[in-house]
Amino acid sequence: MVKSTLEAKTKPRENTDMTENANDRPDRLDEIMNLLVGFIDETRQFMAEQKQFNAKVTEDISQLTDQVGQLTKDVGWLIDTVVWQSGELARQSRELDRQSGEIARLTDDVGQLKGFHVRAVALQRTASFARRLGLAQFHVLSHEETGDLAGRLAEHNIDENDRQSFAAADLIIEAHGDGRTKHYIAVEISYTANQDDVRRAVRNARYLQLLTGNDTHAAVVGCERTADVDTAVATGAVNWHYISNRAMSPA
Q: pLDDT tens digit string along 129-185?
């Protein structure tokens, strides 16, 4: 009796649950299928987009590779150009050095020619140098006479360099003043007179006085002069004798 009652209570419940599960299964399957279809569609879309992205990246890499290749060629050309230009600049520098040397030699040659010319003109005006100092009856010492005087400087303990420099004096004039007093004029000649000319003229005049005991004068002759000469003339250390460029021109 009890068993029958229990079976009667439980069996209908079991049939109900199975029916409910069976009824729910198709909806769940549809949901799963929809999810799978959606996932597959999204996967396909992602793969399509990824394919497009990969293609774009591949294209960009290809373009970048071409650009790098072109840049490499350009850099190579630039390096070759710089190397060539460096060689060309070095060649031009050597040529400029050579030309500078030629110009320097020509400048020296022109300077020497000017010096020779102004000396020639100065020798023609020796009398005027003496007259400007109030002297007359002049005599230009020869190279031998000047050399003899230079030799005598050794007696006064003058060193050899100064003796040789004195012997190479541009011009030494012996002249007479009032009462037949003898004077000596130490002359240095340059196209552009400078401090060295002043120093030599003053020194030579001092040596002449030491050797002869007579009055001496220092004179500088030239077409142009530096500020050092201006100062020496202003202080009376030397006499200035100007030779114009016109006097240097051929007649």
A: 889 889 988 899 999 999 999 999 999 999 999 999 999 999 999 999 877 789 999
**CB neighbours of residue 121 within 10 Å:** 16
Contact 214, 186 (CB under 8 A): no
CB 171 within 8 A of CB 187: yes
Find the DSSP H helices in 125-153: 126-132, 143-152
Judge whether 198 and 93 are in contact, CB under 8 Å: no
107 compared with 6, residue with greater pLDDT: 107
Structural fold of domain 125-248: Trna Endonuclease; Chain: A, domain 1 (3.40.1350)
d(CA 187, CA 171): 5
Task: Identify which of 221, 187, 220 has the alpha carbon closest to the alpha carbon of residue 204.
Answer: 187
Domain boundaries, the chain: 1-108, 125-248
Residue 160, SS3?
A: helix
For the entire predicted model, the pTM comes to: 0.59
Cα–Cα distance between 174 and 140 in angstroms, integer? Answer: 6
CB count, 10 Å around CB of 205?
A: 22
**188 neighbors 225 (Cβ within 8 angstroms):** no
